[in-house]
Structures are given as C-alpha cells and as structure tokens.
C-alpha cells in the first residue's frame, strides 16, 4: 500500500488483538479520559451529587464514542503531517496499520452508536450536543483553523469544552448558566494547556507548517498569552460558588488553590519562555489542574460532603 506522501510501505501483519489495539489508538484514549472526567463533573453538579447509575454509564459511553469518532476523523485528516513528524509517524494510519477507508467507516459507526445511545437513554439534547462537538472539532478546528490560524486551539477549544454540557443536559434535559460556565472554564483552560505542549514540540509543528502560536509569534509572546488566560481562569472558576451557587466552599477553596498554582507556573514560564522543561511542567500540571478541579466539583456536591460539613459546623457551634 502507499502512505499519504505516495511512498510505498508494507502493510504490517497484525494479530486480531493488535488490530483492536490499532483502532483503539485511533480514538486517542488519553484525550477521551479527560473529556469523560469533565462530562462526569457536569452530571454530578447538575444532579447535586445523586446521579442515576445507568444514566451515568450510558452518558459516559456515548460521550466516549463521540470523542473517539472525532479523534479518528482528526487522525484521518492529519495523516499526511503525522507521517512527517517523528512523534506521530507510527500512529495507525501513517504506519499503514489501518486503511483510511476503514478508519472513516469506524468513525461513522462510532458516531451513529453515540447518537443512538444518548438519544435513546438520555435525551436528544445531550445527543445533539455530542454531535455538535464532533462537527466543531472536525470542521472548525481540524479542517479550518489548525493549519491556517495561530488562534486554532483557542477557538477550536470550544469542541473540548462541550462534554460538561452533554453531561448536564443528560441529567436535566436543558442548559442553565452553570454548564455554560463550565464550558467557559474549559475554554479558558485550553490555551495554557495546548500552548505549553506546542512550546515543547514547536519544531515538529514548524516542520509541517502548522501555525501554532509559539512557531509564528515565538515563545515569549506565547508565555504572555498563557499567563493572561491563567489569570482569567482563576476568578471565572469561582463563579460556580458565587453568584451561581451550584458549588460550595470546598470547591471554592480548591479552585483558588489550583488556580494560584497555575498562575505561578505560568509566571515562571514567562521568566524562562525558552525552557522546555518549564513548559513541560506547566503542561503536565494543566492536566492535573482540570482533573482535580472537576473532582472538587463532584466531591463538593456529594450528600456525604454536606453531612460532614453540617456535622463539623454543629461541633463548632
């Protein structure tokens, strides 16, 4: 068979388990995990800690399928540049382990299953939002922005901010201010997260002509932008406590502490913007930031947390 550059490569022989693994890798499971965590946080806050177990599982499975479909199409679209970059050359498509036609069929099947599952067992709003996430990620980010704008991940980050909307809609059947604020939190978090990664692997992006901000504007300007978004994110994350009131003091303290650390790491990066180790530290922390912030949202609304808080207050009184 031929790769996307027209060079002939031998299709590797694979066992059935290796074939399954190749398709699994197409979905980018590490990215899906974080998306599911934010979906779960939307569900738990919407239900104030008491989520129906079946609905929870169905929504996460449906969300995982939608994310997997979007990521598979992204891999299909980017297989030409993936072959050039050493970091991505051995992904299933550029390495020849999966054919483009088969990847497209796989993505379409995942999309259909996701919509059917969410529409049947959750509601049409949740299903529609999941489909909107796929369309936005594929058409707006992958097709339009990624190779044409330094603001690609800023605007494209909206796709990654949809999961809490899906989770909230699955529980309530509608959308209030709170899920949209969760959307904004993830939207503001995306630039520090992805630009830190882009600073680490800027040479790869430059080699394939992807106009990531560090490649076009340089590390110092990127670090300044990262700090701006980090500073904005901290107070915005506290709006879930006041004025919306869907989370309490436990989440508030956690959000303040986690946000302060993010600002500190962003400030350190600004002092040494060319230091790849500092960028890597910020990138890794940004992942933990979102995981821990989502966990704080969930823990804060659990009934057991409320009982413990009331018991402590009664002791103090």
UniProtKB/TrEMBL annotation:
GO BP terms: heme O biosynthetic process
Compartment annotation: Cell membrane
Membrane topology category: Multi-pass membrane protein
GO molecular function: protoheme IX farnesyltransferase activity
Primary subcellular site in the record, as a coarse category: membrane
Gene3D superfamilies reported for this sequence: UbiA prenyltransferase
This protein's GO CC annotations: plasma membrane
E.C. numbers: 2.5.1.141
InterPro entries: Protohaem_IX_farnesylTrfase (IPR006369), UbiA_prenyltransferase (IPR000537), UbiA_prenylTrfase_CS (IPR030470), UbiA_sf (IPR044878)
Pfam assignment, any one: UbiA
Reactions listed under catalytic activity: heme b + (2E,6E)-farnesyl diphosphate + H2O = Fe(II)-heme o + diphosphate
Summary of the function given for this chain in its UniProt record: Converts heme B (protoheme IX) to heme O by substitution of the vinyl group on carbon 2 of heme B porphyrin ring with a hydroxyethyl farnesyl side group.
Protein name: Protoheme IX farnesyltransferase
Protein species of origin: Prochlorothrix hollandica PCC 9006 = CALU 1027
Gene label: ctaB
């Amino acid at each position: 068979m031929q790769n996307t550059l027209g060079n002939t490569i031998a299709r590797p022989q694979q066992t059935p388990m290796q074939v399954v693994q190749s398709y699994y890798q197409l979905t980018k499971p590490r990215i899906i995990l974080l998306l599911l965590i934010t979906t779960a946080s939307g569900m738990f806050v919407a239900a104030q800690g008491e989520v129906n177990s079946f609905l929870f599982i169905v929504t996460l499975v449906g969300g995982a399928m939608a994310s997997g479909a979007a990521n598979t199409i992204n891999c299909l679209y980017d297989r030409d540049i993936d072959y050039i970059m050493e970091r991505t050359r051995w992904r299933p498509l550029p390495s020849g382990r999966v054919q483009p036609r088969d990847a497209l069929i796989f993505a379409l099947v995942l999309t259909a299953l996701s919509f059917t599952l969410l529409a049947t067992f959750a509601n049409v709003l949740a299903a529609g939002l999941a489909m909107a996430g796929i369309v936005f990620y594929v058409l707006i980010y992958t097709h339009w922005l990624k190779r044409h704008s330094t603001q690609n991940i800023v605007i494209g980050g909206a796709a990654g901010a949809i999961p809490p909307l899906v989770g909230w809609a699955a529980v309530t059947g509608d959308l209030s201010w709170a899920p949209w604020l969760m959307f904004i939190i993830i939207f503001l978090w995306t630039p520090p997260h992805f630009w830190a990664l882009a600073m680490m692997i800027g040479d790869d992006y430059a080699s394939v002509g992807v106009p990531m901000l560090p490649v076009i504007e340089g590390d110092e300007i990127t670090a300044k932008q990262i700090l701006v978004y980090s500073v904005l994110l901290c107070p915005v994350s506290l709006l879930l406590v006041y004025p919306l009131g869907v989370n309490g003091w436990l989440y508030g303290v956690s959000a303040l502490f986690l946000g302060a650390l993010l600002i500190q790491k962003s400030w350190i990066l600004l002092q040494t913007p060319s230091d790849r180790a500092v960028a890597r530290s910020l990138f890794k922390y940004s992942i933990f930031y979102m995981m821990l912030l989502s966990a704080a949202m969930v823990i804060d609304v659990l009934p057991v947390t409320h009982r413990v808080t009331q018991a402590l207050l009664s002791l103090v009184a």
